[in-house]
């Protein structure tokens, strides 16, 4: 398209947009809408979700809105085929969610007053299938993951307020806590400059840590026994840096001071609230870190 003038490029863009609209409308006309007002038990609402882990965290505001004063019973479907190509190096390899994941997640969710259970899906009665949105013709590389569920069930929530509460691990109050998965990295972004900041700790897999240690040789690695412990570390830190992975979902839900490395190809995580930054470019990344460090 480099040889085309601006008017030719504009006509092509308009044609593509019309084609997308036609496909969206055609697929939407064939969809079966979910039951927006299911009959639920007087004291409980049952939800089903097959992951990813971060998506489960981002679904909590919708679960809270749908459950109201009733207890949330979350049933997780395990061992579904991964949504990622093997080259994207997801920690679960060929699975979206595993039994081990459920065991790690349950202590965190069961510590929340709104949850009555977090277990593996077997034959439980389901009121809301939180995976149904994937059947609809929306571009799920964009917008905000939380809002996928809002769109599906006609609810909303104030996403500037925390939706997870844990006791902070005060031993990390002077630590910059970092997480960076191999997926969703911003091209051209380097973490090397963090060597000039003392006290940094990585949370994530051993493979991710070994990769990050190349940029920050003095970086420490905090391994946790479950995701409640991980949330407590993040809640207690000086500030958090992460890309679009599960630890950032926790930081966003907890509303700690945070900076998100945003993937331009898939900008579907939007930090909201006080001291919430996102960055795509290196100079801005360094400015954001300096500002968060000054806040203390």
List its salient traits.
10 strands, six-stranded parallel β-sheet, alpha/beta, globular, Rossmann fold, four-stranded parallel β-sheet, 296 residues
Task: Give an overview in words.
The chain is an alpha/beta fold and 296 residues long. The protein folds into two domains: 44-153; 170-295, 3-Layer(aba) Sandwich (Rossmann fold), CATH 3.40.50.2000. The protein is built from eight helices and ten strands. The model has no long low-confidence stretch (mean pLDDT 93).
Low-confidence stretches: none
The overall average pLDDT, rounded, is 93
Strand content: 5-15%
> How many extended strands?
10
- Please trace the helix and strand order, writing H or E for each element: HEHEHEEHEEHEHEHEEH
Number of helices: 8
User: Could you say how many structural domains there are in total?
Assistant: 2
Determine and state the CATH class of the largest domain: Alpha Beta
Structural class from helices and strands? alpha/beta
Summarize the structure.
The chain is an alpha/beta fold and 296 residues long. The chain has helices spanning 6-29, 53-67, 99-110, 145-153, 206-213, 227-236, 246-254, 282-295; strands spanning 44-49, 71-76, 115-120, 128-129, 176-179, 200-202, 220-221, 239-243, 258-261, 276-279. The chain folds into two domains: 44-153; 170-295, Glycogen Phosphorylase B (Rossmann fold, 3-Layer(aba) Sandwich).
């Amino acid at each position: 398209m480099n040889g085309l003038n601006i008017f030719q490029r504009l006509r092509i863009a308009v044609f593509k947009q019309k084609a997308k609209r036609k496909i969206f409308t055609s697929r939407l006309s064939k969809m079966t809408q979910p039951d927006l007002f299911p009959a639920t038990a007087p004291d409980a609402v049952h939800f089903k979700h097959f992951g990813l882990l971060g998506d489960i965290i981002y679904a909590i505001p919708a679960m809270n809105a749908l459950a109201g004063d009733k207890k949330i019973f979350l049933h997780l479907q395990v061992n579904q085929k991964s949504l990622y190509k093997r080259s994207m190096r997801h920690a679960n390899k060929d699975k979206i969610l595993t039994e081990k994941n459920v065991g790690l997640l349950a202590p965190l969710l069961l510590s929340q007053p709104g949850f009555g259970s977090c277990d593996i899906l077997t034959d439980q009665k389901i009121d809301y299938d939180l995976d149904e949105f994937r059947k609809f013709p929306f571009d799920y590389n964009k917008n905000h993951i939380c809002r996928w569920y809002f769109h599906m069930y006609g609810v909303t929530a104030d996403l500037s307020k925390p939706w997870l509460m844990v006791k902070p691990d005060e031993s990390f109050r002077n630590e910059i806590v970092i997480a960076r998965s191999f997926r969703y990295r911003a091209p051209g972004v380097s973490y090397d400059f963090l060597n000039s900041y003392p006290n940094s700790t990585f949370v994530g897999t051993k493979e991710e840590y070994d990769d990050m240690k190349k940029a920050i040789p003095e970086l420490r690695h905090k391994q946790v026994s479950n995701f409640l412990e991980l949330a407590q570390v993040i809640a207690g830190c000086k500030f958090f840096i992460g890309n679009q992975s599960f630890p950032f979902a926790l930081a966003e839900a907890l509303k700690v001071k945070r900076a998100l490395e945003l993937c331009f190809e898939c900008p579907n995580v939007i930090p909201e609230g006080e001291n919430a930054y996102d960055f795509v470019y290196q100079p801005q990344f360094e400015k954001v870190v300096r500002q968060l460090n000054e806040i203390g």
